[in-house]
Amino acid sequence: MRLTALCLAILGLALAALVPGVTRASAAEQASDIPPWLRAHVGDGEGKISEVVLRRARGLYLEKVREGKAKNPCYFAMDATRPSIVSNQRGRRFYIICEADRSFRAVSSGYGNGSNLRGLANYANGQQCAKNFSNAEGSKLTTGGAYWTAETRTSFKGYYRTGGKRVPLLRSFLQFEGEGDTANARERAIGGHPAVLLRNMCRAKDPKDPYANEEGYVAYGSLLDYSAGRSNGCTSWTPADSEKIFEIIKDRPTTVYIYPESTDIDAVAAAVKAGKSPARAGLYWNAACLRAIGAPKFWPKETLEPIIDKYRKAHPPGPPRPLPICR
Fold this sequence. Notes:
Residues 1-27 form the signal peptide. It comes from Methyloceanibacter marginalis. This protein is an alpha/beta fold. It has helices spanning 5-16, 24-30, 36-39, 51-67, 239-249, 262-273, 287-293, 301-314, and strands spanning 74-79, 85-86, 89-90, 94-98, 103-107, 111-112, 116-117, 121-122, 132-134, 145-162, 165-178, 191-194, 196-205, 217-225, 230-231, 235-237, 255-259, 297-299.
């Protein structure tokens, strides 16, 4: 997709409505005038995008286009309140929206798995629905809010075998930048990547291999695809979806809006505690996941980071061990 003169004209008309000094709230309100073709994709059902998520994602995108941080005809959104599996299929909670060519696509994505620091704090998430969220470094949790895409880095993870052949796993990572609750996205190494890794790792001597380390060893493992579930706090996509996403953002940064933000989480939790229906209070959370988790919780970094630091001091990592030799 190329940012043609027509695309620029469309964006220019949208941005002309934004007065100087516009806030994200007012941008989201102006973005609420959703075009008819896109409104057909709005809803709380599978494959749809809930209206509050779209309005905020659209408002963020228009704001960052005006600021020059988004230079792409497409933008992204994610609804981390939705389930991982729906009708035995991967739940679709990440959205690729390209208004210039009227395209909308919903795909699967992981959310942060968290941890259980026994005796200190349990902020682990289940496989199906996210209950815990945080912007604490080391928490491995998702933080909702505003992001925009930065550089992409690709690294060699090792070889795996398929069809009698060995294949190098070269995994790309798309770094996110953020603001507010998400301002430490770079420090947390928060971004997007394919939901694949190698496990059961070993090493083999092959000094002529281009990926051999200084000692002449190359890593091998078995490929694991964890697209239908949790991640380390990043957004993670299937390899096929990742290819399309990386192609969209190549040399053209754009925005990524992730729902829910900390204020949404606190408001829904307060409504549940008071015995009120979040939906009747004008709040949004996926109904099936809200029933499953009871109430969500946001762990501010000021609260959780000291707990994580205390646990790390009490459980220092052992000395690094080399991978075993492959048999």
